[in-house]
Amino acid sequence: MSEEVKSYTTHNYNAVDRQVHEMALREAEITRQLSIANGWRIVRVAGLALLAIGIFFLILAIAYRIAFPPEPMIDKEALHRHTAEAIPLHQHTQNPQSLEQKVASLQDKTENTGSGGKSNVIFFYRVPSDIIGFGNVNTRYHYENSQDENPEKWSCYVQRHHENRILAIELGAQQWGEQPVMDVSASADSGLSQEQAQSLFANKCLWGKV
Question: Nearest CA to 139 among 149, 150, 118, 153?
Answer without folding.
Answer: 153
